[in-house]
Amino acid sequence: MNLAVRDIRHNFVRFALTGLGLGGLLGIVVVMIGIYEGALDDALRLPRASSPDLWVVQPLTKGPFAEPSRIPSDTRELVRRIPGVAAAGAVTFQTVQAVANAKPLRLYIQGYEPGRLGGPPSLAAGHGITQSHYQIVVNDSSGLRLGDHVPLGPFDDPYTVVGLTHGMVTSSGDPVAWVTLLDAQAIQFAVAPPLQRREKAAGRSPLVTADINAVLVQLYPGVSKTTVAHEIERWKHLSAVSEKQEEDYLTVFVISKMQQQLGMFMGILIVVAAVIIALIVYTLTMDKLRSIATLKLVGAPDRTIIGLIVQQALVLGVSGFGLGVALTAAFKGYFPRRVLMEPRDIAILFAIVVVICLLASALSVRAAVKVDPATALASG
Amino acid sequence: MSEAADPTALIELRAVSKHFGEGATRVDALVDVTLSVFPGEVVGLVGPSGSGKSTLLNVVGCVTEPDSGWMQLDGEMVYRDRWLRRDLRRLRLEKIGFIFQTHNLLPFLTSTENVAEVIELAGASSAEARERSIALLGYLGVAHRRNAIPAQLSGGEAQRVAIARALANGPRIILADEPTAPLDSQRAGVVMDLLRRAANDQRGAILVVTHDEKMFERFDRLVRLRDGRVEGKGRHESAAPLVTGSA
């Protein structure tokens, strides 16, 4: 006979309410893990979209995501001529704040040369960029639709949405957009006419549109990445890193703080969950001390008593965990950031919940084991 | 103390002593208590508060270890200056049934489950335990309340279920602590009749702690304790105040 289940049945409302609270709490933990995994996945999608073998960036920087990187746009042609390089594409990256459909819109714009590396991945709708100017491919999370116009740059030039991607956002959740390299350079470096006149009067060139942020490199099959990277660094005085290194820069330098922050919150919430489980199981155990004494008096072994308490803690924790996962799965679409529920993370959290249930029941088990069976008998 | 054990006694204590505390706080709860209870006997254990009744019940129930003397239960020597059996829990489960003043039924189990739990603890299967529980509840006249939890039972019904639980594993020794205290005289009489019937049917020995003088006439013998000593033992012959004398 399972005493734990029967006691839970008897105290169902108390258990249900506690399980509900615990479910909400563990649901927040699942969401936080999901937000971190989502941010990580989002952050890596952009560098993985073009899947280059090498990233060529400004020397002695960890650009273009972890640090600013600015190199001349003719770098692409120089790199392309290195033996072993199959293709190269110049790219720029920048964040812009625009207004579209009367709403503020934050975009992460990638400039690229159509037909070369650095363009958008498979499109969910529409087509790629076919003109040199004023066309934009944007992620559908921006809320923009095909044919919409987005004013960008110092002159608010109207860019027409010609293609939509899906799932392409930055680690900050900003939708990614693609424009031609020329447009991107204009958006990034062009200045308004009054400033142009002032700069010109001062004898400076106000229009510097020849810079890019990085060159994406694809090698012929069998060509060593290390060798080509060494060539680039030695002869072109640039930094060349592999795709894996670039991803490491992103995860270590860009989103590690988020990981630490979410990790702290998760740790605190798990401790709070453990305290709640410990408190409710301890209260239930204290309520049952006479029953426990009676069980011991009539001959129940300690393992029956321990089983009763530990099983209750586990039922509470596991049902709260299940509820938390179910709530997260049901509502994850409503979060402004992508919540990615990885089975590996869920399994690890489940193991943690089981461990905290066992720890939380320790106090109650200690109290129950110490109960003197004689207390079941009335004093005389 | 060297007196030989009576092979016919189900409960036999010789020169059993127990004290609590030391020095100024020392209390001699039991002093050289000698007692025998035989099959089919229902023995009342009476005395004022603090006389040692509960201590004696705890000692016989193998819950409290005496300081000295010896004790034999159902033909097995269980204590002689120390516990002779390591697994007292199993001893209680197999040889002793307990009935409490306030039934002490597990509040989250039905009547059937309360009885079946004890049977299962002894190793029976769930199905067998349930079958025997229902039969026992029927024997005690509460089979119709088998699916009720203790909170839904009257005091008399709960005590009958508690008796069923005490009889669950067929123990030959029943220890009852004020089993009729919360009941009116009519229901108390019914409970005592049930205990008497159980003693007769199982050829068991029943030791009952009570303050209820109206119940005295229902005991075969009364053992009176005062300051931890057996003051007198006698076969009860009337409902008059406690009769003392030789056993």
Q: Largest sheet of chain B at a glance?
A: 6 strands, mixed
Report strand % of chain B: 25-35%
Order of helical and strand elements of chain B: EEEHEEHEHHHEHEEE
**What structural class results from the helix and strand content of chain B?**
alpha/beta
Ends distance of chain A: 33 Å
Question: Over the alpha carbons, how many angstroms does the gyration radius of chain A reach?
Answer: 30 Å
Helical residues, percent of chain A: 40-55%
According to CATH, the fold-level topology of chain B is: Rossmann fold
Described by its quaternary structure, the protein is heterodimer
Mean pLDDT across residues of chain B: 85
- N-to-C CA distance of chain B: 18 Å
**What is the mean pLDDT of chain A?**
87
Shape of chain A: elongated
Number of structural units classed as domains of chain A: 2
Low-confidence stretches of chain A: none
- The share of residues in helices of chain B is 25-40%
Number of helices of chain A: 11
- The name of the CATH architecture of chain B is 3-Layer(aba) Sandwich
What pair of chains forms the biggest interface?
A-B, 26 and 37 residues
Principal-axis shape of chain B: globular
| Sheet with the most strands: spatial strand order of chain B | 6-7-8-3-9-10
